[in-house]
Amino acid sequence: MILMQGKGVSAGVEKGTLYFYQRTDATVTKTAADIETEKQRLADAQKKSIEQLEVLAEKARAEAGDESAILFETHSMFVEDEDYVDNIMSVLEAEQCNIEYAVQEAGKQFSAMFANMDDAYMQARAADVLDVTRRILNNLMGIVAGGIDSEEPVILAADDLAPSETVQLDKSKILAFATQGGSGNSHTAILARTMGIPAICGLGDSLKAEYAGRVAYIDGEVGRLVIEPDELTEKTFQDKYAKQAEMRRLLQTMKGQEDVTLDGKHINVYCNIGSPDDVAAVKSNDGQGVGLFRSEFLYLASNDYPTEDEQFEAYKTVASAMEGKRVIIRTLDIGADKQVDYFQLEKEENPAMGVRAIRICLNRPEVFRTQLRALYRASAYGKVAIMFPMITSVWELKECRRACKSVMQELAEEGIPFNPDTEIGIMIETPASVFIADELAKLCDFFSVGTNDLTQYTLACDRQCNDLGKFFDPHHPAVLRALKMAADAAHRNGIWIGICGELGADLSLLPTFLAMDLDELSVSPSSVLPLRAELRKSIAKTCDLKLLEC
Ligand code: PEP
Ligand code: MG
């Protein structure tokens, strides 16, 4: 039996084949080759690339409209572009080499040519050339972009996964995650909880690439991964699996029930989502709204700034699908751990405290304006609310409001429909926002507490760092007191407050949240029914704030 112990970051048990995530940056070496064979290999790889791009274009069209499909259609044409292919052929014939080398060299030359053009639009095409080149190379070398070359769903193993990698994964192929690094707040963990599948991080070197292809059992609650279990361990897994199935069956009875305590205290139980695809999980788990739509998925999944129309289609899809239920869309929150190449952000010593989230938007008014226009346009199709991340000052919120007002004026002048009463809220995720919560509350319609970042900034503990162990404690009285201060300030000023950080799903804190009189909890879709079941057993008036004591 091979036993690996890490940190369980998304509960559940599963059995499946271990599959190691494949990165797509394989190295190409130059070898001598038969030119005619290589030409045929190129033709096959071009054909495969075009087929893949057609599938991607269809997917993009269905998820985010025609505009998003254009990128893939352009890439598809580029695969057979005459100048590009001539360039590959010249290298091939001059060097009498393998086609991989010729494609790589031609791609470099061609992208450099675009990068050196004066026109900014043409310069940006350099990234497209590299992308197409990478796709052809992957097909030549049998590398699967998006990481999973398996017919069956697998337990996906990796050193760690970047947010830009997780957005591209084919989710239908994943049974569970197991990573060497990462933390409970990493985006792999958040994605796993959204999908309702087990995940373990921090397995370190015990998770070895040589285990690829072996059948493993994963227990995301206790953080255990086992290959070739002994009889007793296998029985423990099977018992747990049976209990999990029974629990899921029981939870189904919670569907359609009210989110209310035994003594009549209502809480809105909403869901956190990362893309329009996740709405299906919100609906199947009976979430009563979307409390946090992390809009950065659009930026992470693109090679260039998503256009206003692309964003509009994505927001409209979610707003319409939720049929009048509240959909809180958070404006772009990149920087720190969520890096997007084309933003060309300066490398920072302390990125979590650097130019991220609302700071980027306020520094780049055009990027902000594009997103706000898309959001207001989508507000005509459902109950959209706009939320700003990482607010620390009153002036920031005032600037955000000014930007909203100016966008509304533009849309009105252009005769484009929008909801002028769209709610505006902020995330409470910095200690500064807690200390000035009274003033901020007077300028917005709601607060949503980002406990992941609030814990990080209150305790001076990096949320990405797995080694901090017990120092990163979201139950710390300082974090809970900060929450209470924000709740009191919200209610004193007549606005509502919820939690959209991971703590919202922590059932052991539900009595504390009830004692604070929170109005909303936004959790991963898979946590809705367990939270509802717990809420419906609770008595709000007997709950207390004991946990706030040291
Ligand atoms: C948070 O910080 O708690 C939050 C919900 O935002 P994110 O995890 O996306 O930073
Ligand atoms: Mg945050």
Fold and architecture overview:
With 550 residues, the protein is of the alpha/beta class. The chain folds into two domains: 24-141, PtsI, HPr-binding domain (Enzyme I, Chain A, domain 2), CATH 1.10.274.10; 252-548, TIM Barrel (Alpha-Beta Barrel). The chain contains 20 helices and 16 strands. The strands form two sheets. It has an eight-stranded mixed beta sheet with strand order 1-8-7-3-4-5-6-2. Helix 6 (163-166) links the parallel strand 4 and strand 5 (174-179). The model has no long low-confidence stretch (mean pLDDT 92). It binds phosphoenolpyruvate and magnesium ion.
> By helix and strand content, what is the structural category?
alpha/beta
Please, how many domains?
2
Count the helices. How many? 20
**CATH fold descriptor of the largest domain:** TIM Barrel
In CATH, the architecture of the largest domain is: Alpha-Beta Barrel
Helix content: 40-55%
What integer is the average pLDDT? 92
Shape: globular
How far from one another are the termini?
43 Å
- Name the poorly predicted regions: none
Strand segment tally: 16
CATH superfamily of the largest domain: Phosphoenolpyruvate-binding domains
Bound compounds, please?
phosphoenolpyruvate, magnesium ion
Largest sheet: 8 strands, mixed
Q: Beta fraction of the residues?
A: 5-15%
Strand order of the largest sheet: 1-8-7-3-4-5-6-2
The rounded Rg comes to 25 Å
CATH class membership of the largest domain: Alpha Beta
